[in-house]
User: What shape does this take?
Amino acid sequence: MNRVILCVCGAATALAILAFGLSGRTAPAPDTDQAAKEKLDRMTKPLAETITKWAKNYSPCLSALYRYEGQVKLVRRISPTEAKITVVLAAFDNQVEKWFPGHDHYLTIYLRYCDGCWTTVRSKRTWKDGEWIVKALHSLMLTIDELGGK
Assistant: This one.
């Protein structure tokens, strides 16, 4: 009988701990949430300038036929400590001097807010990886990290 009581008490304790003490991730403090929002807002303008320069410098790595112009289309928080940046690399055909939206590329960079800084954590892209463009993307992510730390 003592064993049964121990099992019931053990199960009840485990349920209480799960219900009240170990419920998973907690929301950040309100001041942290506001600081993250303000810092992301301050990054938006320099980020657009950075993306424009980056696309101009590294456009030849993507294609010899097209020139790409980088445009930040979206900067959005997806949780109190996470955000994403969506970039369109608009394709311009140099030979016929015309925009070709069907050849645009898309880049999404994910950020996380920690210790007062926004930092890049990963990216998704619509182009094939080549050595030079991968290096270029890492260069861009480093620049965004530097913006997020200011």
